[in-house]
Amino acid sequence: MQPVPLISDIDAAERALWLARFAELMPELDIRPSEQINDADARTARVAIVANPAPEQLRRFPALRWVQSLWAGVEKMVQMPELARVPIVRMEDPELARIMAEAVLTWVLCLHRELPEYARQQRERIWHQRLYTPPAEREIGVLGTGNLGMAAIAALKAQGFRVSAWSRAAKQIDGVSHYAGEEQLPLLLARCDIVVVLLPLTPQTRGLLNEQRLTLLRPDASLINFARAAIVDYDALLRQLDRGALRHAVLDVFDTEPLPASSPLWQHPAVTVLPHVSGPTDIGSASLIVRDNLRRYFDHGEIPAAVDYARGY
Q: What global pTM score does this model have?
């Protein structure tokens, strides 16, 4: 049996959980950490399971026909020369979409019910009851209408919020005002109380929310970024927050992670910093998807649908 390497930089405890789950679900396969596979066996491996794979490890497996990612985000891998001719299968797990929608709803409700303001009042020992706004009077804008975006939209609609959405191409979504293309993005930004970023990072979305577009947001608006840091100009965002042109920002993704202690984001009173926890992969459900994909390949030679390199996702 050809070995199936797990090529990853995840910590040892998490890697052990994945390997134990794979051994339980696929005892017929020889799934091992890539560094435990000798060079001779490495040259015969046809498929690998990857999570932030190191290029030097990938180079040890020259015969790979495809790789199964444990994560939904693959923007770094599509830039790797080592994978230039290798189909990348990203993790598309309905449970991941549910988890992300849960996080979006949690933080939208937090901002809707003005919890950051109440936390500030507590620090300053201020007793003040803020006027309640019904969800039907809040407009939530969701940037991105893929699996994650659609799950978030459904959760927000079920809670009674008005929802607008934006994506690269036009789409019909029941009960949602949809905007498409860069020319219509300003229309959405200008009308929303809370904007949620759930876009993949591509050459087209890098720097999408630059200083010019951030100024289009209403002064009482808030921003949630659960996608990738490079989509939003954080320096420009801080300038908007500093001058009171935005109310609050919830940030879960950063160019450097962990976020350096020297970052001004940590101490900013209008910023909530999260340690990249909005959409964690669920080992239980994701491992079943890996199992099914690997079995179809080894039993029938079927490679699952792979990333479109031209789009970047």
A: 0.94
